[in-house]
Write a structure and sequence with these properties.
Elements (H helix, E strand, L loop, with lengths): L2 H15 L1 H8 L1 E4 L3 E4 L4 H12 L2 E6 L5 H15 L4 E6 L2 H16 L10 E4 L3 E4 L4 E6 L12 E5 L7 H8 L8 E6 L7 H10 L6 E5 L9 H8 L4 H9 L2 H4 L6 H9 L6 E3 L5 E3 L9 E6 L9 E7 L4 E8 L3 H14 L4 E4 L3 H12 L10 H8 L14 H16 L8 H8 L1 E4 L2 E4 L6 H15 L5 H14 L9 H9 L30
Parallel strand pairs: 3-9, 3-10, 4-7, 4-8, 8-9, 13-16
Antiparallel strand pairs: 1-2, 5-6, 6-7, 11-12, 12-15, 13-14, 14-15, 17-18
């Protein structure tokens, strides 16, 4: 065998064993400003390739412009050239991105010396390329049936956090890897929640088979603090978190700020007790006889995607002491509310009075529950005597009232005015996002505990009869008016006695001065206006 031929065979064998050597020695890439250049990989890229080889499943959380998509295209090229019958599928966010991936593959192949091309190209179009060794690389935009009918050797999902319906798509794609296929799922973050977020977070905690790799902006050796500061000048805080910092929480349009969500996470506690259907009632504190409680509830049908939920709020301590989340019929939910209310000192119960909520309210009335919420006190008093309109019980949710209660909820949680300890509530708040001008649960998530808490917070913070601060103010006023007979200052008493007045009776305009500085109250005539 000629010497040159021997060297070529030796190089082919080495390249087949070492993709990093292959990239650096023979491949070229298209640089956006410098044109066609040798693919000289960085250390962090070499580490990624090692992970691709060593691990069947890889999930990468990355900042922008690190060349990971280009690296993935080079890896797919290497695998298809040096190994037979490899079926490689790339899922992209849109058609133009899919076509660009195949373009990168073709640029890499075109740069190779002819003797390195072990297989001929037998099919070549804008979205796929096939080789005579049976291997192929195909890139497709997101669709409901993308890749479902294929047995895959390698699946690459580019910018997975932005792939439409990726959770449903993944359910269809995962079985195609069952014959030993591999997966590389990569993306910049796009808020908390969703399939990509779950894959990465579970990988980071060792709960799935994926190997996690995190690549923030500073892994690139050519980026300095000055570079970062210059980039930040042109980006919003959300964009900085998403494009540079690999921060899930701050990168999304979450209802609460990342700081507030993290604070709630740090307050999570295991419940002291669980009871009720499927142990769905979680208890952090038991009732205290001198405390008052509110129970706010969000009601569902019991057999659909939504849950019935309630929170028990201690108005004395400003904290959620118990909660429920589960799927039971409205009549059973009413029975559960009745029991919870009785356990917590006949707490005020306020269900949302939608169609299913009305059924709950009717059942609570049938059970004789003594403390249902009414917006107007006269309706509540009328109900005590069997004359009230039951349709006026509970909280009416409309487009306007929903905005009001959620605005109040954000304010209360941001100002740390209510303590919450629930991991279930935390999970919902992570995926409670702004979609346009409406705050709602992210696709595939729930917001039932969030809405129930918003109702409770609205009552607790805005209704004087349930508001701890109003009670404290009233108590302080009474204390200020109270007279201590042991006081050494007798001037106050003599003034009252001289006027023959009692401080706990209404002031009579005819019997005591109410204006000027001479009277015992000073100039307080404004009280009588």
């Amino acid at each position: 065998m000629p010497v040159n031929k021997q060297r070529q065979v030796k190089e082919i064998v080495r390249c087949g064993k070492d993709p990093v050597y292959f990239f650096n020695k023979y491949m070229k890439i298209q640089h956006p400003t410098r044109g066609l250049i040798p693919f000289n990989t960085y250390d962090f890229q070499d580490d990624c390739v090692k992970s691709f080889v060593d691990n069947r499943f890889n999930v990468i959380l990355k900042s922008r412009q690190l060349g990971i998509s280009t690296l993935s295209a080079a890896y797919a090229t290497w695998l298809a050239l040096f190994y037979k019958d490899k079926n490689i599928l790339v899922i992209a966010t849109k058609l133009s991105v899919a076509m660009n991936f195949i373009k990168k593959v073709k640029v890499g192949i075109k740069s190779l010396p002819p003797w390195m091309m072990l297989s001929e190209i037998v099919s070549n179009n804008k979205q796929s390329i096939e080789f005579s060794n049976g291997s192929q690389i195909k890139a497709v935009p997101t669709s409901d049936d993308a890749g479902r009918s294929e047995a895959l050797s390698l699946l690459i999902v580019d910018e997975a956090a932005f792939v439409r319906n990726f959770d449903e798509l993944w359910m269809g794609l995962y079985p195609t890897l069952s014959t030993g296929g591999r997966a590389i799922v990569l993306s910049t973050p796009n808020g908390v929640g969703g399939q990509y977020y779950d894959l990465y977070m579970k990988a980071a905690s060792g709960e799935n088979e994926f190997h996690p790799t995190k690549l923030p902006w500073d892994v690139h050796p050519e980026r300095s603090d000055e570079w970062f500061e210059d980039e930040c000048k042109n980006l919003t805080n959300k964009q900085i978190a998403q494009e540079l910092l690999c921060d899930f929480a701050a990168s999304g349009d979450t209802f609460l700020s990342a700081e507030d969500i993290e604070y709630i996470r740090t307050r999570i506690k295991n419940p002291l007790e669980k009871w009720g259907p499927d142990m769905g009632v979680w208890v952090w504190k038991y009732a205290l006889t001198e405390h008052k409680y509110i129970i706010s509830a969000d009601v569902s049908r019991g057999d659909a995607a939504d849950y019935s939920t309630f929170h028990v709020i201690d108005t004395n301590e400003s904290e959620i002491v118990a909660e429920y989340k589960g799927k039971i019929p409205p009549d059973q939910f009413a029975t559960l509310l009745n029991e919870a209310g009785m356990r917590y000192n006949k707490a005020v119960i306020c269900p949302e009075n939608n169609s299913y909520g009305y059924a709950v309210i009717m059942k609570l009335q049938e059970l004789g529950y003594p403390n249902l919420y009414y917006k107007n006190q006269k309706d509540k008093f009328a109900a005590m005597y069997g004359e009230g309109n039951i349709s006026k019980a509970g909280f009416t949710t409309s487009g306007v009232s929903r905005v009001q209660i959620l605005t109040k909820l954000e304010e209360v949680l941001r100002n740390r005015q209510v303590n919450a300890y629930s991991s279930r509530l935390y999970d919902e708040l992570k995926t409670f996002i702004w979609k346009g001008n409406k705050a709602q649960a992210q696709r595939g998530a729930n917001d039932d505990l969030v809405i129930a808490l918003a109702i409770g917070v609205w009552l607790y913070d805005t209704k004087p009869e349930y508001n701890k601060h109003t009670v404290d103010i009233n108590a302080a006023m009474l204390q200020a008016f109270a007279v201590n007979s042991n006081s050494t200052d007798k001037s106050v008493f003599s003034s009252w006695n001289n006027m023959n007045q009692n401080p706990f009776k209404p002031i009579s305009i005819g019997s005591a001065p109410v204006s000027g500085s001479d009277g015992p109250l000073g100039d307080m005539s404004w009280l009588l206006k």
